[in-house]
Amino acid sequence: MSVATERQDPGPAAAGVRRSGEPPGPRRPAPGTPGRGRLTGAAPYLLLLPALVATVLLLGWPLVKDGLLSFQNLNMRQLIQHLTEWNGVDNYRETLTSEDFWRVTLRSVIFTAVNVVLIMLLGTLVGLLLARLGSKMRLLLSVGLVLAWAMPPIAGTTVFQWLFAARFGVVNWVLDALGWHSMAHYNWTGSQFSTFFIITLLIVWQSIPFVAINLYAATTTIPGELYEAAALDGAGTWKSFTSVTFPFLKPFLLATTFLEVIWVFKAFTQVFAINEGGPDRLTETLPVYAFIEGVGNQHYGMGAAISLLTIAVLLALTSYYLRIVLRQEEDEL
Amino acid sequence: MKRSPLARLWPNATAVVLFIGFAFPVYWMFTTAFKPTSDVISEDPVWFPTSATLDHFQKALDAKNFWTLVGNSLTVTLSAVALSLVIALLAAFSLARMRFKGRRGFLVTFMIAQMAPWEVLVIAIYMLVRDGDMLNSLLPLTLFYMVMVLPFTILTLRAYVAAIPKELEESAMVDGCTRPQAFVRVIFPLLAPGLMATSLFGFITAWNEFPLVLILNKDPEAQTLPLWLSSFQTAFGDDWGATMAAASLFAIPILVLFLFLQRKAVGGLTSGAVKG
């Protein structure tokens, strides 16, 4: 697969552009130096303007609106009568003192942790397996991975509902055939644990391919000399993995873990569509909780407060990596 | 180093098991869609169907509003992708080719915008769209999908533009082209693969979007296909043949796109998503 090189390209090329476009220190023209036309000075900003306007209007405005709503007492009545009732930090106080919110937050964090650990661990193993396979078997496994990766979340969710259907579901049949007869007509969406089991299986199934295929692509860029050198030093398979493969893949693994944390934490379609947060609201994660409290129960102001708290939790979960990225950008751009 | 046949057995056997695990749900979706109902609701699963029927697809296609929703999905998705490409191309060119104050800030802004928590902003978006009296309209969906895919499109295209040697443009300009002309004649054709890759990703994102349309467009005539599929499942309950036919109809365009996209997808996504 030719993909690995594409991943590497932008870096060095961008560095080259910088070198030719931005001469070091003394030769750099002082700000306001004549010679550059006014148009050139404004051009980059004009080109960025449509993107900025669109982002500020359609992303920034909802964020601000969400902030404003979170300080309002806004339910069905106020919505219909177009009333604006400010109630200060009441929504936050009520949310933060409610047991429900903390239970859902804890559930969300555990859900994210379990999924991301499974995805990264199994994804890495499958990726390393891809690297060891011959070309035919690699193609076969890749086809399977791409099929799972390409399934739209809502279609995948529907298929998993069929696989785990209580009647005629193939999973129950297999479990029954394997001797676990009480599973013959088991209702998977009937309990919290089994519903989460299906959601996790679904998300892990759909997410492993991204990690595995990208990781395989990354391993193909490891210079072979590194392994030769390690072999000369008497390194075995495990040693050469820990001293060559792993350090090389570390930045990739870090970046992917960060992405998966965001994706899993925000996952709405799968969690909502499998059982709408049920049974008894026991599988609501934070985004689903905000949706059901806000829209379903028509406590819009409350829902807005929950959604802002959800963003705060997500930022806390990713802050370690965000710091690294932002610092890196400072250095590299 | 040549491995013995025995040493290769384990990886190969694992690969086959994994292939079955990953492909089976997709296989089961397609085969169920074609199976006669008696095979779908058989006490023992029919692993390899011997007879096929198109009845389930007929039922899925006959479902109320299906073609309206196909039209809606295509309109929203294609216009969102086209708009975002134009806007992103301008921004990507500026970020990749020009030096100016605040450039780093803009880049970081788009990187952060890429993480936008759209799933939890639906309440605010609902209020805004309702205040503008635009519920059950395709326009807000189009605009929001456009902004959803915009940061990724900008950052990825920026990487593609940056990878094209600057000298190509400069020599075109020496030959008498203006800067915009040089861009259109020299850079644009070289960017074609990048444009393909990013627009396919945009298409997939917008085609699959669920939470926003769920809350904005309650009117059955103004919905898109993901809602159709989820409500189809609810309405047809245990008619798994028809439901799997519907799921197949929804998934096929994306599965086909992915076949074209897969090579570009690898790596491109992580570099665009994280590194810009």
UniProtKB/TrEMBL annotation, chain A:
**Which PROSITE patterns does the UniProt entry name for this protein?**
ABC_TM1 (PS50928)
For this record, the Gene Ontology CC terms, alphabetical, are:
plasma membrane
Is the keyword Transport assigned to this protein? yes
GO biological process, alphabetically ordered: transmembrane transport
Annotated compartments:
Cell membrane
Q: Name the domain of life.
A: Bacteria
Q: Where is region (Disordered) located?
A: 1-37
Chain intervals with Pro residues compositional bias: 23-32
Query: Start and end of every ABC transmembrane type-1 domain?
Result: 105-321
Q: Which Pfam families match?
A: BPD_transp_1
Report keywords, A-Z: Cell membrane, Membrane, Transmembrane, Transmembrane helix, Transport
Regarding protein family, the annotation reads: Belongs to the binding-protein-dependent transport system permease family.
User: This protein is called what?
Assistant: Sugar ABC transporter permease
**Source organism of this protein record:** Streptomyces antimycoticus
Automatic annotation (TrEMBL), chain B:
Which coarse location class applies to the principal site listed for this UniProt protein? membrane
Per UniProt, what is the membrane topology? Multi-pass membrane protein
Keyword Transferase in the entry? The reply is: no
Which GO cellular component terms are attached? plasma membrane
Question: Where do the ABC transmembrane type-1 domain residues begin and end?
Answer: 70-261
Q: Where in the cell is it found?
A: Cell membrane
Q: Where are the transmembrane segments?
A: 12-30, 74-93, 105-129, 141-161, 182-207, 240-261
Annotated keywords: Cell membrane, Membrane, Transmembrane, Transmembrane helix, Transport
In terms of domain of life, where is this protein from? Bacteria
Question: Do you know which InterPro entries this protein is assigned to?
Answer: BP-dep_ABC_trans_perm, MetI-like, MetI-like_sf
Q: Which SUPFAM superfamilies match?
A: MetI-like
**Which Gene Ontology BP terms does the record give?**
transmembrane transport
State the family named in the UniProt similarity comment for this chain: Belongs to the binding-protein-dependent transport system permease family.
- UniProt protein name: Sugar ABC transporter permease
Q: Which organism is it from?
A: Streptomyces antimycoticus
